[in-house]
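lol ok so funny story. i was supposed to be doing the assay writeup but got distracted and ended up predicting the structure for this chain instead. priorities right. anyway since i did it might as well share w the group, maybe its usefull for someone
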Amino acid sequence: MGMRQIADVISPEQFQYNLNRTIAWTQKIVEGIRNPSAINYARVLRTINPIYEGKPFYNYYDEYIAPPEIEINFAPVLFYILSLRKEKIKPKMKINELGKILRFQVNISTLDGAPITESEGFVDDADIPPIDTWFYSTKEYLYCWIPTLFVPKMQGAIDVEILDSYVWLQDINPGLNYQIINRLENGD
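and the output, tada:
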């Protein structure tokens, strides 16, 4: 399935535009990590805590992170955080070395705590990946860019999450994943 065939679900240009800026945003965070063994996974990719329905999006309780509710309208939050991302990646970067695209099915969770525990707080209490990784949403899915440093933590959450709400784009649509990465690497 090519970019045209998913046009009814996503806007290919906006998807790529947002992804480009999100890779640059998260790469800057990753490059600022001096001691990977001391990472606070609950906070490292949650540098923004926007206001959602009059309150901060996240509530922090030590290593426990709670989003405002289970049924979240991601669009206004995503619009705000994307407005902060101005930098683009440089063409010819090896994107596959920097991370992976994750598709997360929104607004479903068992709230059993397994993904948050297994990922050491990388995903929150409602199983949502960190806000700095978000780059695109549809009614059903939130797309996230997971930097390579955090892929093992995300994979831990994937391995224990029983509703199959997480999937790597390269696993469900390798052709599309290749096309997106190739276009970014070539500066298209």
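Residues 1-8 have pLDDT under 50 and may be disordered. The two ends are 19 Å apart (CA to CA).
back to the writeup now i swear
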